[in-house]
Amino acid sequence: IGSLIGDISGVQIQQSSPVSGNTNVRIQGLDGRYTQVLRDGMPLFDGFSGGLGLLSIPPLDLQQVELIKGSASTLYGGGAIGGLVNMISRKPTGKQELTALANYSTLDEKNLNFFASKKYSWIGYTFFGGVTHQNAQDVDKDGFSDIPQIRSLVIHPKLFFYPSENSTISLGCSGSFDKNLGGDMQVIKSNTDNIHQYFEQNKLQRNTYEIIYQQKLSDNSKIEFKNSLSNFNRKFSSNDNFLNAKQNSYFSELTYIRPMKNMSWVLGADFQGSKFTPQNFLHFQVPEFENNSFGLFIQNTLKLNKMTVETGIRNDFTNNYGSFFLPSIAAIYHFDEHWAARGG
Question: Where would I find the H helices in the chain?
Fold first, then answer.
């Protein structure tokens, strides 16, 4: 995924920690916190749980990765002012699919991934499981790890139900379990002494549950409901500090999409929030924190002869910071099939 989106102009993959392996996606020069990372249209990686290793996400169960450069705040809120990355999971087809992938790199990274899917008359399924075993590497030979030691397990099963020809219900859960160790290479090799002491270790556990309901109507419009719950636990420790904390995140959204002859409308509302709870820590001054927001939005896309104009307004009501009004307008003009100009 990092290779896929990092080669696009205006997008920079920035490693935020060589110890944890975490990376940020910076779009058009803005900080990584202004890029919203979604899975199947749902923001699951914000706040404390936003330390996401994009480079370690296995693409085997992904159908596609969508990238939007520039503000997408109308549909996704203030966290998407820079842009967004949306990872879309694969869906089952009538043909049985079984895929296994084994990988070994010159940096001593070993991966074993498995994916299976099948669609029947009224039910379908997808299943992904992956294991990563990465030994710490000191690429520049300065005595400290540039790539941490990683032990990772990812499981992602999903069930699909088809009550009618125009409706789909999907139920999914995923579990991600990681243990990362970086720092002084001698410490990683268990050779600690008075000089070689520095290390950082992260034990991460992420559990996510989601439901998506889609209903197509007779006029080609569509109603969609999404809901997700995510629980993230991190145990951080070093030679002189530690922090154990968890974050619970929740998201619900109801949208109505209406395509017309030369335009389309999106109307919707969402409720999202998170609760951060420190359990025990040393030196960190981190209080318990909870944030909730309710948003209303409407967006119009108008297609003219050579120009497409997109306008939208959104208002978020938060429990801690009051109300936020987020208007947006963007346009793209196609001179011919090779050249275009856009602004927003």
Answer: 2-6, 73-76, 185-188
Q: Say whether 76 sits in a helix, a strand or coil.
A: helix
> What is the Cβ-side half-sphere exposure of residue 5, based on CA atoms within 13 angstroms?
28
Burial of 247 (0-12, 13-18, 19+ CB in 10 A): buried
Tokens of 209: 């549950």
Residue 152: C-alpha distances to residues 22, 62, 111, 137 (Å): 14, 18, 9, 17
Distance, CA of 87 to CA of 41 (rounded, Å): 8
Mean pLDDT for the stretch of residues 123-149: 92
Q: Mean per-residue pLDDT for 233-257?
A: 93
Is residue 23 over pLDDT 90? Answer: no
Model confidence, pTM: 0.87
CA torsion angle 188 193 194 199 (round to 10):
10
Q: Indicate the helix (H) or strand (E) that contains 70.
A: none
CA dihedral 54, 55, 60, 64 (to 10 degrees): 50
What letter represents residue 85's amino acid?
V
Residue 289: is it exposed, middle or buried by C-beta count within 10 angstroms (0-12/13-18/19+)? middle
DSSP state letters, 307-337: EEEEEEEEEEEETTTEEEEEEEEEEEEESSS
**Residue type for position 258:** R
Tell me the residue type at 272.
Q
The string of DSSP letters for 81-143 reads SSEEEEEEEP---SS-EEEEEEEE-TTSEEEEEEEEEEE-SSEEEEEEEEEEEE--B-TT-SS
Task: Report yes or no: 160 and 91 within 8 Å, Cβ to Cβ.
Answer: yes
Q: 115: closest CA among 65, 151, 62? A: 62
